[in-house]
Amino acid sequence: MLRSMYSGISGMKGFQTKLDVIGNNISNVNTIGYKKSTINFQDLLSQNLSSGGANPMQIGLGSSMASINVNHNAGSSMSTGVGTDLSIMGDGFFVVQDPEAAAGEGQYLTRAGNFTVTAEGNLVTAQGYNVLGSNEQAINVSGYDSFSINRLGEVIGKQADGTETTIAEIGVSTPENPSGLRKFGGSLYEMTGVASANGLNIQTATEKNTEIGSGMLEMSNVDLTEEFTEMIIAQRGFQANSRTITTSDELLQEVVNLKR
């Protein structure tokens, strides 16, 4: 009976964490470039009751979390008509850098392409981080009357006389294991050794075999129907495990009453 109680407790803790993951996904259903998380469980160690006979006799001791993974499937695209709103049409991430960080440091990955241009002409994120080109330098469009970004990720500046010049190329990084990236907050990811053995490895969209969509944003890949279904399963699982605890308690109460 005590084993069943502890198994019930481990199950309740697991489903509580699952509800935490689901709640975070739902809260970010409209977050640009957000990637939903999923949780997987595994059983705990089993207690051997007997090693005799043809097969071992074992009783499980509950469940535990195996992993919480990030699903990096692409979300739907939303047209905005704003030239500085970008989306990656395929695999990869934009590379941004904290302007206060030293050269080569403070670099992050993101799929949120809602960029703007500062008064100094720098292409930046909503948090003010500089968007890096394929040369790992901040992209600056000052000195031009206007600019545009084509599907190859080329930032093309245009002078008043119609002269066009390629200012920079949007940098793209494609880690071998995107699930190994560490969430930093603000729709940013930190590179880790688990995600890529070669670091950021910033290249052009063409070299990464992808394209850049200008005037559109990638929305969250959260499916509310799926999340609500998982929420129901988590709720019922939590209730079932709590019922295991109350039933074990009733049995223990009956044992105590035998003495009266």
TrEMBL record:
It comes from Planococcus antarcticus DSM 14505. The keyword Acetylation does not apply. The keyword Membrane does not apply. Residues 5-35 form the Flagellar basal body rod protein N-terminal domain. Residues 214-258 form the Flagellar basal-body/hook protein C-terminal domain. Residues 88-155 form the Flagellar hook protein FlgE/F/G-like D1 domain. It is found in: Bacterial flagellum basal body. SUPFAM superfamilies: Flagellar hook protein flgE. PROSITE patterns: FLAGELLA_BB_ROD. This is Flagellar hook protein FlgE.
